Model the fold of this input.
Amino acid sequence: MTEERIILGIDPGTTIMGFGLIKVVGKQMEFLQMNELILTKYSDHYVKLKLIFERTVELIDTYHPDEIAIEAPFFGKNVQSMLKLGRAQGVAMAAGLSREVPITEYLPKKIKMAITGNGNASKEQVAKMLQSLLKLKSLPKNLDSTDGLAAAVCHYYNTGKKVSSNNYSGWESFVKQNEKRIKK
Done:
């Protein structure tokens, strides 16, 4: 019997959350879906976080992914943006953990490297390579959904390899890997 698994990739954001799903059958990748959650019409940051959580849970309950790959926030100069992005990532992770779906984080450069062979590739280069790899007929206008899809494909390529990314299979493993960050 051929092993089958589904990977949900998420590019968290408080303006647009991109996501993509692939199915892996044996050693073959198959495109399932990509889309985005557009949050620009909401001004309340907490409402945005609630919607990210709810949409992630809805994706999990609909597609039953075996694993989640999420893009880790990169370090920018704007502290407020970093804080908001970290919160968006956190609620997406909490949604996965609430359904006990293992999560792996990947740095943007690692994702770009896995897809294109170049850690400094543009969003457009990543999208074009995904279009070729997964035989997509067209690409979306916004490339946030292809960024989410790229996280899923990166995870597929890194499965079974020792990765330096963080892996969480539930709250317990998250706490164990982050003991220094937890106040007692």
